[in-house]
Amino acid sequence: MSLRSPLGRVLGLGSAKDGTAHWWAQRVSAVALIPLTLWFFWSLLLLPTLDYATVQTWLSVPLSAFLAVLLVAVTAYHSYLGTNVVVEDYVHAHAAKLFLMLLLRFLYVLCGGAGIFAILRIALLPSP
Amino acid sequence: MTSRTRPLSPHLGIYRWQIGNTLSILHRITGLALGLGLLALTFWLVSLAGGEESYRTAARCFASPVGLVCLFGWTFSFLYHLFNGIRHLCWDVGLGFERTQRHASGWLAVLAAVCATLAAWVLLWQGGRL
Questions:
Q1: pTM, two decimal places
Q2: Which of A62, A73, A108, B30, by CA, is between 20 and 30 Å from B11?
Q3: What is the ipTM, given to two decimal places?
Q4: Is B117 among the domain residues?
Q5: Which domains does chain A have, with CATH numbers?
Protein backbone atom coordinates (compact mmCIF):
# COMPACT_ATOMS: atom_id res chain seq x y z
CA MET A 1 0.00 0.00 0.00
CA SER A 2 1.31 3.42 -0.90
CA LEU A 3 1.00 6.31 1.50
CA ARG A 4 1.46 8.82 -1.30
CA SER A 5 -1.48 10.92 -2.36
CA PRO A 6 -2.87 10.52 -5.88
CA LEU A 7 -2.16 14.21 -6.53
CA GLY A 8 1.49 13.77 -5.55
CA ARG A 9 1.77 10.80 -7.88
CA VAL A 10 0.24 12.70 -10.80
CA LEU A 11 2.59 15.64 -10.25
CA GLY A 12 5.59 13.29 -10.17
CA LEU A 13 6.57 14.30 -6.64
CA GLY A 14 8.59 12.11 -4.33
CA SER A 15 11.82 10.20 -4.77
CA ALA A 16 13.44 10.30 -8.20
CA LYS A 17 15.25 7.02 -7.33
CA ASP A 18 18.62 8.49 -8.28
CA GLY A 19 19.37 10.71 -5.31
CA THR A 20 22.89 9.45 -4.74
CA ALA A 21 23.93 9.21 -8.40
CA HIS A 22 24.75 12.93 -8.75
CA TRP A 23 26.59 13.07 -5.44
CA TRP A 24 28.56 9.93 -6.26
CA ALA A 25 29.51 11.11 -9.78
CA GLN A 26 30.80 14.35 -8.24
CA ARG A 27 33.11 12.43 -5.87
CA VAL A 28 34.35 9.94 -8.47
CA SER A 29 35.21 12.71 -10.94
CA ALA A 30 36.88 14.63 -8.08
CA VAL A 31 39.15 11.67 -7.33
CA ALA A 32 40.04 11.32 -11.03
CA LEU A 33 40.86 15.04 -11.21
CA ILE A 34 43.46 14.91 -8.42
CA PRO A 35 46.15 13.17 -10.54
CA LEU A 36 44.97 14.73 -13.84
CA THR A 37 45.07 18.36 -12.68
CA LEU A 38 48.33 17.87 -10.77
CA TRP A 39 49.91 16.38 -13.90
CA PHE A 40 48.76 19.36 -16.01
CA PHE A 41 49.84 21.94 -13.43
CA TRP A 42 53.28 20.37 -12.99
CA SER A 43 53.83 19.91 -16.71
CA LEU A 44 53.12 23.58 -17.44
CA LEU A 45 55.36 24.70 -14.58
CA LEU A 46 58.22 22.47 -15.72
CA LEU A 47 58.16 23.48 -19.41
CA PRO A 48 61.28 25.57 -20.13
CA THR A 49 59.23 28.26 -21.87
CA LEU A 50 55.59 28.72 -22.76
CA ASP A 51 56.12 29.76 -26.38
CA TYR A 52 54.30 28.16 -29.29
CA ALA A 53 56.98 25.65 -30.34
CA THR A 54 57.52 24.31 -26.80
CA VAL A 55 53.86 23.94 -25.89
CA GLN A 56 52.95 22.51 -29.31
CA THR A 57 55.76 19.92 -29.09
CA TRP A 58 54.75 18.97 -25.55
CA LEU A 59 51.09 18.50 -26.42
CA SER A 60 51.96 16.50 -29.57
CA VAL A 61 53.41 13.70 -27.44
CA PRO A 62 50.70 10.99 -27.40
CA LEU A 63 50.73 10.60 -23.60
CA SER A 64 50.35 14.37 -23.04
CA ALA A 65 47.53 14.59 -25.57
CA PHE A 66 45.77 11.58 -24.08
CA LEU A 67 45.96 12.93 -20.52
CA ALA A 68 44.93 16.40 -21.70
CA VAL A 69 41.83 14.94 -23.39
CA LEU A 70 40.93 13.15 -20.15
CA LEU A 71 41.58 16.34 -18.18
CA VAL A 72 39.26 18.44 -20.34
CA ALA A 73 36.53 15.78 -20.37
CA VAL A 74 36.53 15.08 -16.63
CA THR A 75 36.90 18.77 -15.71
CA ALA A 76 33.92 19.69 -17.90
CA TYR A 77 31.85 16.89 -16.33
CA HIS A 78 32.85 17.74 -12.74
CA SER A 79 32.30 21.46 -13.28
CA TYR A 80 28.93 20.78 -14.93
CA LEU A 81 27.80 18.76 -11.91
CA GLY A 82 28.98 21.48 -9.53
CA THR A 83 27.46 24.48 -11.29
CA ASN A 84 24.23 22.53 -11.70
CA VAL A 85 23.97 22.25 -7.91
CA VAL A 86 24.65 25.98 -7.57
CA VAL A 87 21.79 26.76 -9.95
CA GLU A 88 19.49 24.35 -8.11
CA ASP A 89 20.39 25.99 -4.79
CA TYR A 90 20.00 29.65 -5.72
CA VAL A 91 17.64 29.90 -8.69
CA HIS A 92 14.11 29.21 -7.57
CA ALA A 93 11.96 30.41 -10.49
CA HIS A 94 11.16 27.25 -12.41
CA ALA A 95 11.59 28.67 -15.93
CA ALA A 96 14.86 30.43 -15.12
CA LYS A 97 16.20 27.33 -13.41
CA LEU A 98 15.36 25.07 -16.32
CA PHE A 99 16.78 27.56 -18.82
CA LEU A 100 20.05 27.99 -16.91
CA MET A 101 20.53 24.26 -16.38
CA LEU A 102 20.00 23.56 -20.09
CA LEU A 103 22.27 26.47 -21.04
CA LEU A 104 25.01 25.10 -18.77
CA ARG A 105 24.65 21.64 -20.27
CA PHE A 106 25.04 23.00 -23.81
CA LEU A 107 27.95 25.24 -22.80
CA TYR A 108 29.86 22.45 -21.12
CA VAL A 109 29.44 20.06 -24.03
CA LEU A 110 30.51 22.85 -26.39
CA CYS A 111 33.51 23.74 -24.23
CA GLY A 112 34.61 20.15 -23.64
CA GLY A 113 34.08 19.24 -27.28
CA ALA A 114 36.07 22.23 -28.55
CA GLY A 115 38.92 21.54 -26.11
CA ILE A 116 39.15 17.86 -27.01
CA PHE A 117 38.93 18.59 -30.73
CA ALA A 118 41.73 21.15 -30.39
CA ILE A 119 43.98 18.66 -28.58
CA LEU A 120 43.35 15.97 -31.21
CA ARG A 121 44.08 18.53 -33.93
CA ILE A 122 47.38 19.38 -32.23
CA ALA A 123 48.38 15.77 -31.62
CA LEU A 124 47.31 14.17 -34.88
CA LEU A 125 47.87 16.80 -37.58
CA PRO A 126 51.00 18.80 -38.47
CA SER A 127 50.94 22.34 -37.04
CA PRO A 128 49.22 24.82 -39.40
CA MET B 1 -8.10 34.89 8.03
CA THR B 2 -6.08 37.45 9.89
CA SER B 3 -2.38 37.52 9.17
CA ARG B 4 -0.28 37.27 12.28
CA THR B 5 3.45 37.40 12.65
CA ARG B 6 4.46 33.81 12.97
CA PRO B 7 7.65 32.54 14.57
CA LEU B 8 10.36 31.99 11.97
CA SER B 9 13.37 29.74 12.09
CA PRO B 10 16.60 31.72 12.47
CA HIS B 11 17.84 33.38 9.30
CA LEU B 12 21.40 32.88 8.11
CA GLY B 13 22.43 36.24 9.54
CA ILE B 14 22.02 35.04 13.10
CA TYR B 15 24.82 32.51 12.88
CA ARG B 16 28.35 33.47 13.81
CA TRP B 17 30.75 33.66 10.89
CA GLN B 18 33.39 30.97 11.41
CA ILE B 19 35.99 28.93 9.57
CA GLY B 20 33.68 26.04 8.64
CA ASN B 21 31.13 28.02 6.67
CA THR B 22 33.76 30.44 5.31
CA LEU B 23 35.79 27.64 3.74
CA SER B 24 32.65 25.95 2.47
CA ILE B 25 31.58 29.16 0.70
CA LEU B 26 35.11 29.66 -0.59
CA HIS B 27 35.05 26.12 -2.01
CA ARG B 28 31.95 26.99 -4.00
CA ILE B 29 33.30 30.36 -5.17
CA THR B 30 36.62 28.85 -6.29
CA GLY B 31 34.66 26.09 -8.04
CA LEU B 32 32.70 28.68 -10.00
CA ALA B 33 35.92 30.56 -10.80
CA LEU B 34 37.42 27.32 -12.11
CA GLY B 35 34.38 26.90 -14.35
CA LEU B 36 35.41 30.16 -16.01
CA GLY B 37 38.97 28.80 -15.99
CA LEU B 38 37.78 25.91 -18.14
CA LEU B 39 36.57 28.48 -20.69
CA ALA B 40 40.01 30.08 -20.63
CA LEU B 41 41.70 26.68 -20.97
CA THR B 42 39.52 25.90 -23.99
CA PHE B 43 40.37 29.28 -25.52
CA TRP B 44 44.07 28.53 -24.97
CA LEU B 45 43.85 25.04 -26.50
CA VAL B 46 41.84 26.21 -29.51
CA SER B 47 44.28 29.05 -30.18
CA LEU B 48 47.18 26.60 -29.86
CA ALA B 49 45.51 24.34 -32.42
CA GLY B 50 45.03 27.36 -34.68
CA GLY B 51 48.77 27.82 -35.15
CA GLU B 52 51.53 30.18 -34.10
CA GLU B 53 49.73 33.41 -34.98
CA SER B 54 46.58 32.69 -32.96
CA TYR B 55 48.61 31.25 -30.08
CA ARG B 56 50.61 34.47 -29.85
CA THR B 57 47.40 36.49 -29.71
CA ALA B 58 46.07 34.31 -26.88
CA ALA B 59 49.40 34.48 -25.04
CA ARG B 60 49.27 38.27 -25.27
CA CYS B 61 45.77 38.19 -23.69
CA PHE B 62 47.01 36.06 -20.81
CA ALA B 63 50.11 38.22 -20.33
CA SER B 64 48.05 41.43 -20.04
CA PRO B 65 47.51 42.84 -16.52
CA VAL B 66 43.92 41.56 -16.41
CA GLY B 67 45.06 38.21 -17.80
CA LEU B 68 47.78 37.84 -15.17
CA VAL B 69 45.38 38.69 -12.33
CA CYS B 70 42.96 36.07 -13.66
CA LEU B 71 45.73 33.46 -13.99
CA PHE B 72 46.85 34.19 -10.43
CA GLY B 73 43.26 33.85 -9.22
CA TRP B 74 42.84 30.58 -11.10
CA THR B 75 46.07 29.23 -9.61
CA PHE B 76 44.84 29.92 -6.10
CA SER B 77 41.33 28.69 -6.92
CA PHE B 78 42.67 25.44 -8.34
CA LEU B 79 45.02 24.75 -5.41
CA TYR B 80 42.48 25.69 -2.74
CA HIS B 81 39.70 23.69 -4.43
CA LEU B 82 42.13 20.76 -4.70
CA PHE B 83 43.23 20.80 -1.05
CA ASN B 84 39.80 21.54 0.36
CA GLY B 85 38.35 18.94 -2.00
CA ILE B 86 40.69 16.32 -0.55
CA ARG B 87 39.44 17.46 2.87
CA HIS B 88 35.87 16.84 1.72
CA LEU B 89 36.80 13.42 0.34
CA CYS B 90 38.33 12.52 3.73
CA TRP B 91 35.04 13.45 5.42
CA ASP B 92 33.20 11.30 2.89
CA VAL B 93 35.10 8.24 4.10
CA GLY B 94 34.49 9.28 7.71
CA LEU B 95 37.84 10.83 8.63
CA GLY B 96 38.59 14.05 10.48
CA PHE B 97 35.19 14.98 11.88
CA GLU B 98 36.41 16.10 15.32
CA ARG B 99 36.20 19.82 15.95
CA THR B 100 39.95 20.28 16.35
CA GLN B 101 40.64 18.16 13.26
CA ARG B 102 38.16 20.15 11.18
CA HIS B 103 39.73 23.42 12.17
CA ALA B 104 43.28 22.20 11.71
CA SER B 105 42.61 20.68 8.28
CA GLY B 106 40.78 23.85 7.22
CA TRP B 107 43.66 26.12 8.11
CA LEU B 108 46.07 23.63 6.55
CA ALA B 109 44.13 23.72 3.25
CA VAL B 110 44.21 27.54 3.17
CA LEU B 111 47.87 27.72 4.14
CA ALA B 112 48.90 25.04 1.63
CA ALA B 113 46.95 26.78 -1.14
CA VAL B 114 48.51 30.18 -0.42
CA CYS B 115 52.05 28.75 -0.17
CA ALA B 116 51.70 26.60 -3.29
CA THR B 117 50.25 29.53 -5.27
CA LEU B 118 53.16 31.78 -4.31
CA ALA B 119 55.70 28.99 -4.96
CA ALA B 120 54.27 28.33 -8.43
CA TRP B 121 54.42 32.02 -9.36
CA VAL B 122 57.94 32.43 -7.99
CA LEU B 123 58.93 29.43 -10.11
CA LEU B 124 57.32 30.99 -13.21
CA TRP B 125 58.85 34.38 -12.48
CA GLN B 126 62.35 33.01 -11.87
CA GLY B 127 62.17 30.97 -15.05
CA GLY B 128 61.52 34.23 -16.89
CA ARG B 129 58.27 32.91 -18.30
CA LEU B 130 56.09 35.81 -17.18
A1: 0.90
A2: B30
A3: 0.89
A4: yes
A5: 21-124 (1.20.1300.10)
